[in-house]
Amino acid sequence: MRLSRHYLPEMVNAGGGRIVFISGESGLNIPVEMIHYGMTKTAQLAISLGLAVSVAGTGVTVNACLPGPTRSDGAVASTPNLAAERGVSEDEIERQSSPRTGRPR
User: Fold this and answer.
1) Catalytic site includes residue 37
2) Is 69 within 8 Å of 25 (Cβ atoms)?
3) Tell me: the pLDDT tens digits for 14-45?
4) Distances (CA, A) of 56 to 7, 24, 49
5) 8 Å CB contact between 59 and 40
6) Ramachandran region of residue 61, left (φ > 0), alpha (ψ -120 to 50) or beta?
7) What confidence category does residue 103 fall into, taking pLDDT thresholds of 50, 70 and 90?
8) First to last CA, the chain
9) Which pTM does this prediction carry?
10) Which of 35, 62, 65, 95 could be bridged to 19 by S-S, CB 3.0 to 4.6 A?
11) Which of 25, 37, 52, 55 is labelled catalytic?
12) Helix/strand/coil (H, E, C) string of 54-105?
């Protein structure tokens, strides 16, 4: 936000520029085990939308990227614990985490 506030006036005066926030699909589909993380990603979406509306027509664009879950070593290691906590199979945990399913986590 601070960088946006600093550079945005210069971009508007120049007639163009790009601001890109790296949010995440957790901003739309907040994981119950990481509500605090989802909240920060939702805040980024709100900031990006608010800034985009405020600079409409100036040549400046503001966007947010929403990458989904990544099958990292940490995610793989936590899958058995999540499955046990929720009483489902590890495969079900992976299906619930996949952005392709279209289902909430």
Assistant:
1) yes
2) yes
3) 999 999 999 998 899 888 888 999 999 999 99
4) 16, 23, 11
5) no
6) beta
7) very low
8) 29
9) 0.68
10) 62
11) 37
12) HCCCCCEEEEEECCCCCCCHHHHHHHHHHHHHHCCCHHHHHHHHCCCCCCCC
